[in-house]
Write a structure and sequence with these properties.
- It is a single chain.
- By secondary structure, this protein is of the alpha+beta class.
- The protein is built from nine helices and eight strands.
- A hairpin with a 2-residue loop joins strand 3 and strand 4.
- The termini are far apart.
Length: 265
């Protein structure tokens, strides 16, 4: 099991997210080492990889409910999942998005996370970050085949539509259920993961979003995924139980508070 070390603040990091802004003063570093992962029901054969000479540097949102904890950004978790699944060491700098330090704003003028330093260059946007990591560290492979990359891609936007909806008859709930049902059917025929037996980047992107969906809709809408979608439920349980996921997932309280502004308008 990898040890976590707290270091004094050092340099700065940048950020940029296309889809959802995870808004950054508290600053702590945590070092994560490579290790072998065992999954409930699944075991991966790990391939030796060319590790970076130094840990990668990652800026992430800090918890707004508990000091020195990782915050609730699903796009940051996607990046951390990628690094964990590739067994890459990284230093994690937690940013209080309500009180962004000057060093952080100097490298991320928009004040967004996540951002990762690769080859002395700060890279923003979870799509770009994960693609760059895949190209630089191809083993173990996490690339999703192009024909499967869009599976489940509309779930997050329909979730937000339903979450913000004030009219029960506007079709937003139905739209979400349609997307979830389509994904349920896909996993039934092609699972356990989007790319079959092997986890891929698509799962690492969708997993954190489904985690937020489950918590937030349960809290604010008293809504839960229906029992008529058992394959989706099994998929979520499988992804949420990955060691990489449990290590990088945010606190439930942070997820609830993080979405409060969108719910309250």
């Amino acid at each position: 099991m990898s040890a976590i070390r707290i270091h004094p603040p050092t340099t700065a990091l940048t950020t940029s997210i296309k889809h959802l802004t995870c808004n950054p003063n508290n600053l702590n570093l945590f070092t994560t080492n490579s290790r072998n992962f065992k999954r409930s029901g699944f075991r991966r054969n790990l391939t030796p990889i060319a590790m970076s000479s130094n840990p990668l540097e990652v800026c992430a949102k800090s918890s707004i409910t508990v000091p020195n904890r990782l915050g609730d950004c699903p796009f940051t978790q996607r990046v951390l999942l990628t690094l964990e699944e590739k067994h890459l060491p990284y230093n994690l700098k937690l940013i209080d998005l309500a009180n962004k330090p000057e060093w952080f704003l100097s490298i991320s003028p928009e004040g967004k996370v996540p951002i990762v330093k690769l080859d002395d260059k700060w890279i923003a946007d979870s799509d770009v970050i994960t693609q760059t990591v895949e190209e630089k560290f191809p083993e173990p492979p996490l690339l999703t085949p192009p024909e499967k990359a869009s599976i489940g891609s509309k779930i997050f936007s329909t979730y937000i539509g339903f979450l913000k909806s004030k009219d029960p008859n506007d079709g937003k709930e139905e739209a979400l259920l349609n997307e979830l049902s389509a994904f349920n059917d896909y996993i039934k025929e092609n699972g356990p993961f989007i790319n079959g037996k092997d986890i891929s980047g698509a799962d690492l992107s969708l997993g954190p979003k489904l985690y937020h969906l489950e918590i937030v809709l349960g809290h604010y809408k008293k809504w839960s995924i229906p029992d008529s979608l058992p394959h989706l439920k099994t998929y979520m349980k499988t992804v949420f139980s990955l060691e990489s996921f449990t290590k990088t997932m945010p606190l439930t309280e942070d997820v609830i508070e993080g979405w409060r502004p969108k719910v309250m308008g």
